[in-house]
Design a protein that fits this description.
Strand content: under 5%
Shape: globular
Distance between the termini: 46 Å
Strand order of the largest sheet: 1-2
Radius of gyration: 19 Å
Structural class: mainly alpha
Helix content: over 70%
Number of strands: 2
Length: 185
């Protein structure tokens, strides 16, 4: 089935669109498209964002490594760089500090009709993408490739089974979720 999917570009695009819509619906249902929830997380008053992120990481880690174990997927890590991470962090942080949304939550908030996301978010995404595209040649030459990091997973780097890291990581995150749920107001 997955081989057939890889051969049909239109089906891939349709599935991508459907997954994006589902993602937006789940963000909205989880409350992450509300400015007050994101701001509450930044002020350590509302732990909804962390709980949803940890839950997603747990499910995603188990799911992707189960699929990998059965030979249904192949991980394709991409090389990274400290320079690229710094630029990405600055852009992400500026948007989050200015508007109170990350790229995923701002698009979900636009979909639900939030005026702050529609105005600031939409134009911020357009202006940010335009500026990045305009300055890309210079950034690529001087910053984005500084401090290159090899395209390798931690299990590959350390020569261990992925489950050696996934299972303890999932356990720690599940305990953290329990702790947050039990002791946060």
């Amino acid at each position: 089935m997955l081989d057939r999917l890889h051969q049909h570009r239109r089906l891939q695009l349709l599935l991508g669109l459907l997954m994006g819509v589902l993602f937006g619906i789940l963000l909205q249902k989880g409350g992450l498209t509300h400015y007050d929830v994101v701001l509450g997380q930044l002020l350590f008053r509302d732990w909804t964002v962390v709980k949803i992120m940890l839950s997603a990481i747990i499910v995603g880690a188990i799911g992707i490594f189960l699929l990998r174990s059965f030979g249904h997927v192949r991980l394709q890590p991409k090389p990274a760089s400290l320079g690229g991470s710094a630029i990405g962090g600055i852009i992400f942080g500026a948007g989050l500090a200015t508007l109170g949304y990350c790229p995923g939550t701002v698009t979900g908030a636009m979909g639900q009709g939030s005026y702050d996301a529609l105005t600031g978010g939409f134009f911020g995404i357009l202006v940010g993408a335009g500026l990045f595209a305009h300055f890309y040649p210079w950034l690529d030459k001087h910053i984005l490739n500084k401090g290159r990091i090899q395209a390798q997973t931690f299990p590959e780097l350390w020569g261990v089974s992925p489950w050696t890291l996934v299972l303890p990581m999932v356990l720690v995150m599940a305990l953290l979720l329990w702790f947050i749920e039990r002791f946060s107001g």
